[in-house]
């Protein structure tokens, strides 16, 4: 922790007001739940303009652009800090088994969440192909554009074949640019809960 020097009068004022020096908590504007709907709408319109510029020879509407991503949840996180009486250790009782991770794949467009599926195994190209096949059974036959992040198995021939055989397209966004995939905001809000 950095050393913050205070004068005597400042120190007395801080003590009187019960103010301590603490580590700051950083909150990112994009991740605030109350602003998330406006942020998602703005990101979706920005993405639509970016896609129209990049793929100007393709005619599509915002409803045909579907954002897909997967995320892993570790449900058995253990806290490192706790509160307790002075002079005694903070104590918590936990189960011995930590359990397994859960992977979730979801798809959304400008109107909201379209489909999701959870797996108890880590996500790979087989689960992605299975997710697409289930999604195609639920959606209309109009041609869709799927926007996905740059994970290695999104580039696999199996995933591309499953999508392109149905007459759809895959667009893989550039690495380290989650702001172009609004479903990342959905996942960040889900992890807060």
UniProtKB/TrEMBL annotation:
Pfam families: DDE_3 (PF13358). Residues 65-191 form the Tc1-like transposase DDE domain. One of its GO terms (molecular function) is nucleic acid binding. It comes from the Eukaryota. This is Tc1-like transposase DDE domain-containing protein. InterPro entries: RNaseH_sf, Tc1-like_DDE_dom.
